[in-house]
Amino acid sequence: MNLPDRFLADSTRWFTYLYGLSSFFGITKAITFSLVWSHWHSTLNGCFSTDCGCCLYVTTTPGTITGSDIGVCWFITYAHLVIGLGACGVACWCCVRRMREQTRRARGKTRHRPVYSSEHQEDSSFTLQALLSGLVSVLLFSTGYMFTEGYIKTCSEYRRTVARNLKATGNLMDLISSRLSCTSILDMMDYTQPNTPRRAPRGGIINSAILLQIAGLLTWAHFGVWVVLLVYNTCLARHKARMGGKDVSWSVGVKPEKVPEGEKMGVIGTETSI
Question: How many CB atoms lie within 10 A of CB 107?
Fold first, then answer.
């Protein structure tokens, strides 16, 4: 797969965009999802020996409604939060690096001499970034799968709870089982599922359906960003290998005719006469 020249000439710029998106999706996902499971935690935590207040993989019985192990919600939340915070740091570093490169280019044009960059990337950097992107993509896929499966199971269990709370029979039972969407089911649970007396109250009513759906979209969007990072780093690594380990920007620009011996910095721009 060959990338257009504009993606090869200024990889720092595109890394800034991609890591910035990862930061936004990851942190927003963590906040959105934590609002839901923390709101329902006291109602769903019906276990005596363990904490089972997670709002995914909910199970119901004729008299109770119980969540899954809280570790499931912690894993999904903190995986996205940590990756999002890490991506935020990388995006900030890319911004600083790009501004420094642009400053050096501007100075080089003014002084009519070649400009060198101290941020010349090693030959293996894109390969290492591709491997890291692959590992993160696998982790985010696992969180997306767990979230989606848990959401579907919770919706199915809540249908039974809604039907039981409304004492549904006949056509009303068919309506709840076949026609009502998960959004409607979760809305009804927000209002019809009482707080258990021995547990702490939930503290108001939130729109659980909207928050969970937003969290689900952000989960898969975050995963998609890292798949793009995986593909992008892989293409850059392959392109750099074809160029014999030279800086990627030389393949789409003009390489200086002579580089001073002993110079350890990579050329990022050349003088231009006006």
Answer: 12
> Phi and psi at residue 100, in whole multiples of 5°?
-65, -40
What number of CA atoms fall less than 13 Å from residue 256's CA on the CB side? 20
Higher pLDDT, 134 or 241: 134
The DSSP bridge partners found for residue 115 are 269
Strand partners, 116: 267
What is the distance between the alpha carbons of residues 179 and 184, in angstroms, rounded to a whole number?
10
Domain assignments of the chain as residue spans, ordered by start: 8-113+128-244
DSSP conformational letter for 176: I
% of the chain beyond a pLDDT of 90: 36
Cα separations (Å) of 95 from 11, 15, 18, 237?
A: 12, 9, 12, 21
Enclosing H/E stretch for 269: strand 266-269
Q: Report the candidate in 108, 147, 35, 136 with the shortest Cα–Cα distance to residue 268.
A: 108
Look at residue 265 in the predicted model and tell me its pLDDT: 46
Residue 52 per-residue DSSP state: -
Element (H, E) at 169: none
Other C-beta atoms lying within 10 Å of the C-beta of residue 85: 13
At residue 166 the predicted structure's pLDDT band, cuts being 50, 70 and 90, is confident
Residue length, the chain? 274
d(CA 59, CA 152): 12
Mean local confidence (pLDDT), 24-37: 96
Identity (one letter) of the amino acid at 74? W
Handedness of CA 80, 81, 86, 89 (dihedral sign): positive
Number of H helices, E strands in the chain: 7, 4
Question: Does residue 23 contact residue 88 with C-beta atoms inside 8 Å?
Answer: yes
Where residue 98 falls among pLDDT bands split at 50, 70, 90? Answer: confident
